[in-house]
Amino acid sequence: MDPLSQAVLGATAAQTIGDKKNLAKATVIGALAGMAADLDVLINSPSDSLLALEYHRHFSHSLIFIPLGALICALLLYALLGRYWQLRFKPTYLYCLLGYATHGLLDACTSYGTQLLWPFSNYRVSWDIISIIDPLFTLPLLILIVLAAKRKQRAFVYCAVAWCAMYLSLGVLQHERAMLVANDLISKRGHSANHIEVKPSFANLLVWKIIYQSDDHYYVAATRLGISSKVWPGESIRRLDRQRDLAWLDNASQQAKDIERFRWFSAGFIALDPNNPYQIIDMRYSMLPNKIAPLWGIRLNPNAAANEHVQFYAEPRKASPRAAPLWQMIKE
User: Fold this and answer.
1) What's the rounded Cα separation, in Å, for the pair 275 and 290?
2) How would residue 317 be classed by pLDDT, with cut points 50, 70 and 90?
3) Largest alpha-carbon pair distance within the chain?
4) Which controlled-vocabulary keywords does the entry list (predicted)?
């Protein structure tokens, strides 16, 4: 999730073991440790733009790395803050351990994919129960941890933990409801689906995106899950077949290998951009959940050398006219 969400959840976890006089210290240390795993964004290559995708949410987010990641954070924060605050190393490490431990688990609650089981598996865990940014999850936690630190009252910590548990549980419930809607939609269409995903749309748990594969096509739709459910039919696109769609591409080339790397990153949901035959899109994400309008993809070069990489691209992040229709879907 976004850095602020990671920070407030890390702080919340650290506050659960902080005594009243050290609640503020636990908050700061837990917040910093809660964000630390995302330092993997520094791993990149000017010639291989997919390297950053491969190593984001990689070893630094795995369960087995938590004690070591926490130790690195503790050593740094103890040197910078612990002695100045007259805080012993043991509680510093414990605050870091709890804060760091929340990071990969919270990321796994989103749909991006997190390698929790590295090095035993490179499977990208994605439980799809919360959007990558959700103010309704983050802001109440932020308010509660600030109140706990400022007033030195653990009651606010308990409220923060309860809010976190309740909101994520609501995400689990909404995910199950969305899956029921998806299966019903697939049945009504007479499709046979072998790959179905449902995920919350941007910044809310009301409107969900439905994605599924039937034969050689991917289909998207959206549903609003209030007291009752509403469905918006979506669009479809042919799944990528490298031999059919990119017959010009040498199978031994680096670009062909990069396509398979991107397929792994995208959980298989890749297709040829209908507007550009040299672009491959990750169709899991779009501002409007019932549309195929990808946020990112990779760009091929038919004149590239055999060892040349593809180029990852992302659509510009600016105010979008699609935000208004999404808000309308949420309000309905």
Assistant:
1) 18
2) low
3) 67
4) Hydrolase, Membrane, Transmembrane, Transmembrane helix
